[in-house]
Amino acid sequence: MIKKVLILDKNHPFIIFKLKKEGIICDENYNDLIDKIDVSIYDGVILRSRLKIDKKFIEKANNLKFIARIGSGTENIDKNYATKKGITLISSPEGNKDAVAEHAIGMLLCIMNNIICSHQQIITKKKWIRENNRGIEIMGKTIGIIGYGNIGKSFAKKLSNFDVKILCYDILSKRGDFYAKQVNMNTIFKESDIVSLHVPYTKRTKGMINYDFIKKFNKSFYLINTSRGGCVITNDLVEALKNGKICGACLDVLEYEEFFFDKKISCHRKFYKKFLYLIHSNKVIFTPHIAGWTKESKYKMDKKIVEKIIFLNQKFMKNDHFK
């Protein structure tokens, strides 16, 4: 039975309301470092991405039954060690799938129709340029979706009305559906005009979009990354933009995203020089990791986490009853 949980990030107030209604005590701590908290008294932890749950934390939290990560990524949790300790991992990717899908489509429309570039020309340079801003239609293109889970499926469904061919690749079999045909990566390489990443950040996906990967595509393509920045090697992306292998890039995340919190960003030369190219290129648009960051998704992710915790608690209570 779940008796007491620790909440490490601010969330919708109904999380506490719902859990208390189930008889669960909720402690909030948004300021202290993990080392300063006595985690041994908690049955569960609820967090977002601000803090890391590592082996050291798990060792101290010897009563822990679950770790709930609000959102879709769980790379800030030592999943292998948690699983080894019998701790249940919970996330809520269902909650922001529509937000990410809409955002990806919005970015794609912007890059293919020069919306941001032409807007800036008008307001900053007072230039009204039409021919050089002639757009390209999504209709008739082949979209390759890499990673066909909750978000990939939502993206495909929303794209289906654009009269496109949608292909998907996933490490799991039988993931394709009415909206996307599941194929192997060779087919993605051969046919895609647009590629969208919707994969978790793992050892397998870290740096997956690199020089060798990009050169396998038969056609130049547009790249959308609303997944994790570390999945794309910045240096190789820049080279592909320069040589035309990638027509344009929609980036909600960056490989060295954490440097934006560092005031001395220009000191990180390995990243900074390439970043300067990206921000000055009219082939690239950025957003600050907000693809799943809507008012609606915040509520839906929190709601889904609560539902899963309550379901897990009922399961624990049932098992205790039969002991």
**Poorly predicted residue ranges:** none
By secondary-structure content and strand pairing, the structural class works out as: alpha/beta
CATH 4th-level superfamily of the largest domain: NAD(P)-binding Rossmann-like Domain
Relative strand content? 15-25%
The assigned CATH architecture of the largest domain is 3-Layer(aba) Sandwich
SSE arrangement, N to C = EHEEHEHEHHEHEEHEHEHEHEH
Radius of gyration: 22 Å
Helix content: 25-40%
Outline: elongated
**Distance N to C terminus:** 12 Å
- Give the count of structural domains: 2
Biggest pleated sheet: 7 strands, parallel
Describe the structure.
The chain is an alpha/beta fold. The chain has 2 domains: 4-92 and 296-321, NAD(P)-binding Rossmann-like Domain (Rossmann fold), CATH 3.40.50; 97-286, 3-Layer(aba) Sandwich (Rossmann fold), CATH 3.40.50.720. It contains 11 helices and 12 strands. Helix 1 runs parallel beside helix 11 and helix 4 (97-112) packs across helix 6.
Topology:
Elements: E1 4-7, H1 14-21, E2 25-28, E3 44-47, H2 55-60, E4 66-69, H3 79-84, E5 88-91, H4 97-112, H5 115-125, E6 142-146, H6 150-159, E7 165-169, E8 181-182, H7 185-191, E9 194-197, H8 211-214, E10 221-225, H9 234-243, E11 246-251, H10 269-280, E12 284-286, H11 295-321
Parallel strand pairs: 1-2, 1-3, 3-4, 4-5, 6-7, 6-9, 7-8, 9-10, 10-11, 11-12
Helix pairs in contact: 1-11, 4-6
